[in-house]
C-alpha cells in the first residue's frame, strides 16, 4: 500500500497492506455523472481519479456508492470517484473490459460469461450476498410454479438478465427458446398489467414494488400481493450471486492499482454500512441524483437491497466459495457457461479493505439489522 496518499491514515494503510500480503489468493447509453467534489482533505498528498459503472440508472440499488461519495468516504481514501449510470445500452463489465472505467457493478454469471469470451475482468468484491429474481403472474393465471410456464407467453428482459431464469427452466425440463413464447419485456410492469403476457421477470426490490404501487381499477385501491402469483427463484433453489464489483486483471497488475482498488472497496463498504444504519438518509442521497423513482419506491428498494446484504454471514464484500461454486455449476448446467473461468475472483483486496473498514470502527456484519415496514403509495411517490 502507498503510505504517501494519506498521512493521517498511515496506520490504516499499513494494516491493509499486511492483510493484503497475508490473504492474497484468487479463485477459479448513459452519460457519466461526476461524483460530488471531493471533500478538501489536507491529509491527501495526491488524489486518484477512478470511474465506477453501475448496472442501471441512479436508484437505491446503488445507494452505497452514492453514500460513499456524499459522506466523504471516497475523499477520505484520497479518491475522486465518477459514478457512471448504466442503461439499456451500457454493459458495465464490458465498459471495464474495454478500459473505459476502472470498476463495474455487475452480476456474477453474466460477468463470468464476459470473462469466458476473453475479457480479463475479475470479481474483487461480492456486495450482494443474496439474490432477488422473481417471476410474476396474475393470481388467476394458473401459474404457480416454474413448470406452469411451459406453453405460456412470457416477458423477458434479455441483456443477460434472463440467464438465471433460463437456467432454472432448463433444470425443470423446459427449454425457454422453444417451449415458451418469449417477448421482449421493458423495464416496467406494463406487459403484465395489460395482460399482454402471462408472466414477467421482476426483482423484489424494484418491479414488485411497481406492481404494488399501482391502483387496481376494480377496487380503486393499490394492488396487493395476493393479486399476483410470485415465484421466488431463490426459494426454488436457484440462488445465484448478483451485484459484485469488477476490475481488470491487467489494470490491477499495474503499480499502485491494487492500493487504489483496496481504498475504493473500503470506502464503498463504508457507504453500504451507512445505508444500513440510516436508510432514510441514503434514500435522500439517491433522490438528489435526479432519480425518476419516487420517495416511497426508493424507501422500498433501500429496504429490500439492505436485505440482500445484511445481515452478512462473513462480512460485507467477502465472497463465499460455496455460493460461487453453486453459481458456476448452475451456469454450466443451464448452458450459460461452458466451464468455470479460471481466476474469476480474488479475495485479497476485500480482505485488505475490510481491515481499513473495521479499523475505522464500522460493523461489517450487521447482525442486528432487520427489515423495516415500508408503505408504498400510488406511483411510488
TrEMBL record:
Residues 1-29 form the signal peptide. GO terms for biological process: thiamine biosynthetic process. The keyword Iron applies. It catalyses: N(6)-(pyridoxal phosphate)-L-lysyl-[4-amino-5-hydroxymethyl-2-methylpyrimidine phosphate synthase] + L-histidyl-[4-amino-5-hydroxymethyl-2-methylpyrimidine phosphate synthase] + 2 Fe(3+) + 4 H2O = L-lysyl-[4-amino-5-hydroxymethyl-2-methylpyrimidine phosphate synthase] + (2S)-2-amino-5-hydroxy-4-oxopentanoyl-[4-amino-5-hydroxymethyl-2-methylpyrimidine phosphate synthase] + 4-amino-2-methyl-5-(phosphooxymethyl)pyrimidine + 3-oxopropanoate + 2 Fe(2+) + 2 H(+). Pathway: Cofactor biosynthesis; thiamine diphosphate biosynthesis. Residues 60-278 form the SsuA/THI5-like domain. Keywords: Iron, Metal-binding, Pyridoxal phosphate, Signal, Thiamine biosynthesis, Transferase. It holds the Pfam family NMT1. The keyword Iron applies. Gene3D superfamilies: Periplasmic binding protein-like II. GO terms for molecular function: metal ion binding; transferase activity. Homodimer. Belongs to the NMT1/THI5 family. Responsible for the formation of the pyrimidine heterocycle in the thiamine biosynthesis pathway. Catalyzes the formation of hydroxymethylpyrimidine phosphate (HMP-P) from histidine and pyridoxal phosphate (PLP). The protein uses PLP and the active site histidine to form HMP-P, generating an inactive enzyme. The enzyme can only undergo a single turnover, which suggests it is a suicide enzyme. This is Thiamine pyrimidine synthase. It comes from Agrococcus carbonis.
Amino acid at each position: 500500500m502507498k503510505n504517501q496518499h494519506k498521512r493521517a491514515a498511515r496506520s490504516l494503510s499499513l494494516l491493509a497492506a499486511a492483510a493484503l500480503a497475508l490473504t492474497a489468493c484468487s479463485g477459479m447509453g448513459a452519460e457519466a455523472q461526476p461524483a460530488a467534489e471531493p471533500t478538501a482533505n489536507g491529509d491527501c498528498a495526491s488524489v486518484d481519479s477512478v470511474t465506477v459503472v453501475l448496472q442501471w440508472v441512479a436508484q437505491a440499488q446503488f445507494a452505497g456508492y452514492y453514500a460513499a461519495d456524499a459522506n466523504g468516504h471516497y475523499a477520505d481514501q484520497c479518491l475522486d470517484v465518477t459514478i457512471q449510470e448504466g442503461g439499456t445500452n451500457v454493459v458495465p463489465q464490458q465498459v471495464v473490459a474495454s478500459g473505459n472505467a476502472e470498476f463495474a457493478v455487475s452480476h456474477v454469471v453474466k460477468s463470468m460469461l464476459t470473462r469466458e469470451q476473453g475479457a480479463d475482468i475479475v470479481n474483487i468484491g461480492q456486495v450482494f450476498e443474496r439474490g432477488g429474481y422473481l417471476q410474476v403472474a396474475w393470481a388467476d393465471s394458473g401459474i404457480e410454479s416454474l413448470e406452469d410456464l411451459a406453453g405460456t407467453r412470457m416477458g423477458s428482459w434479455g441483456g443477460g438478465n434472463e440467464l438465471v431464469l433460463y437456467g432454472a427452466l432448463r433444470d425443470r425440463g423446459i427449454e425457454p427458446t422453444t417451449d415458451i413464447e418469449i417477448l421482449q419485456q421493458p423495464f416496467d410492469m406494463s406487459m403484465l398489467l395489460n395482460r399482454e403476457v402471462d408472466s414477467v421477470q421482476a426483482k423484489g426490490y424494484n418491479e414488485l414494488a411497481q406492481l404494488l404501487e399501482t391502483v387496481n381499477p376494480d377496487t380503486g385501491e393499490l394492488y396487493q400481493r395476493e393479486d399476483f402469483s410470485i415465484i421466488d427463484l431463490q426459494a426454488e433453489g436457484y440462488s445465484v450471486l448478483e451485484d459484485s464489483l469488477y476490475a481488470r486483471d491487467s489494470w490491477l497488475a499495474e503499480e499502485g492499482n491494487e492500493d487504489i482498488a483496496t481504498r475504493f472497496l473500503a470506502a464503498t463498504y463504508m457507504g453500504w454500512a451507512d445505508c444500513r444504519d440510516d436508510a432514510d438518509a441514503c434514500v435522500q442521497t439517491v433522490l438528489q441524483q435526479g432519480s425518476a423513482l419516487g420517495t416511497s419506491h426508493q424507501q422500498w428498494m433501500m429496504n429490500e437491497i439492505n436485505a440482500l446484504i445484511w445481515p452478512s454471514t462473513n462480512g460485507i464484500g467477502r465472497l463465499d466459495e460455496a455460493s460461487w461454486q453453486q453459481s458456476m455449476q448452475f451456469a454450466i448446467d443451464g448452458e450459460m457457461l461452458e466451464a468455470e473461468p479460471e481466476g474469476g475472483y480474488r479475495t485479497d483486496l476485500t480482505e485488505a479493505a475490510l481491515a481499513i473498514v473495521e479499523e475505522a470502527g464500522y460493523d461489517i456484519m450487521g447482525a442486528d439489522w432487520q427489515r423495516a415496514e415500508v408503505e408504498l403509495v400510488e406511483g411510488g411517490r
